[in-house]
Prior knowledge:
The longest helix has 18 residues, at 65-82. It is built from 11 helices and 11 strands. Strand 4 and strand 5 form a beta hairpin. By secondary structure, it is of the alpha+beta class. The protein has helices spanning 8-18, 65-82, 87-91, 113-116, 143-148, 158-163, 169-178, 261-278, 296-310, 314-323, 328-340; strands spanning 24-25, 28-29, 95-105, 119-125, 131-137, 166-167, 181-184, 190-196, 200-215, 227-243, 248-257. The strands form 2 sheets. Strands 3, 4, 5, 6, 7, 8, 9, 10 and 11 form a 9-stranded mixed beta sheet that branches. 24% of the residues are buried. The protein is globular. The termini are far apart. Keywords: Leucine-rich repeat, mRNA transport, Nucleus, Repeat, Transport. Pfam families: NXF_NTF2, TAP_C. Belongs to the NXF family. InterPro entries: NTF2-like_dom_sf (IPR032710), NTF2_dom (IPR002075), Nuclear_transport_factor_2_euk (IPR018222), NXF_fam (IPR030217), TAP_C_dom (IPR005637), UBA-like_sf (IPR009060).
Amino acid sequence: MTVRFRDSLRWLSKLNKILPTVKRLNGHELPRTVQFAIEQGPDSSSKRPQTKPLPQSILGFFPNDEVKIALLSFLKLYLSRYDSKPRGESLLPYYTTVSQLAFSVAPENRLSNTQNTFTARVEIENSSGQSSTSYLTTSRLTQAHFSRSRNLLRCRDQTRRRDMIIRGSLAIAHFLDELPSTEHQLESLSVDVAFHSATQIVFTMGGVFYEVSPMNSNSVTSSSLEKSVRKVLRCFTRTMILVAPGGHVIQDDYIVSNPSTSLCKKYITEMATKCKLGNQVPNQQNSVTNSSLDAPDIKDNIVLEFSQRTGMNIPFSKQCLDEYGWDTNAALSAFETMNSAGKIPPEAFSV
């Protein structure tokens, strides 16, 4: 044994694999063969080493600022178009004929009693005197979600699993267009970049959004100008493979689930309180601070992304964004309208 195992640590490792339950050998207590540095105390010979606290987790990881600014600019524009109508037409340029999307929902479609108690009503009156009411709440995932879900715990048929992978830009745009209308809360986003190169980025993003649907009031006393909407809080996680040039998504794994109790408290109870104090309804525009546009790098990336989407050169792209207050959704809608009418001069597309 001593000839074959001259290294005592190696010998103890082999012994532990053969006899993992042995704690003492020849009257001596065997040392622990596996220890994590974070759990070891200052004296490694002590029988019960003092544990050290784990470091705090961080929300999001970016390898450098260049990747961070470019990716956040892309996601801001993508989610803005995702929340716009028509969604399918707006998202069509982001996908190609080789793109794939897999949509799944959490297998549990019930909410706990605690989550069911979160409901808030927010009222606002705009400058025109029109009254708008939003009901922030939670709700079980519906059959419409589960019928489209490729969750492997529920979808056991191999053929159905294969068929439920959506392939191609048209099919993906049509599928996403059928999902409920949404308002993403950009402040909730957490983005982790797993890999990046000059031509590809692999990342995962998670956050919350509201599923928005109109409500028909049955009250005869309600004003005809009153508009009521129901906003159901959901969680989402998406893992994407993004390729350049053009920022096309070739793989999109999309998961939707019900929010936790802490998220319900933050984005229903606390959000309603903030809206009452600030007299504004929560939406994606309020989730982004206008001060973030003051950074020149962010504006440059938005202009570059807008130029890639429209085909216009940088000066005309910047002029279009300036005219619409850097609201990319409004600027894109205006571009599509004017371009279809042939009102954009040819020099806007010259290099």
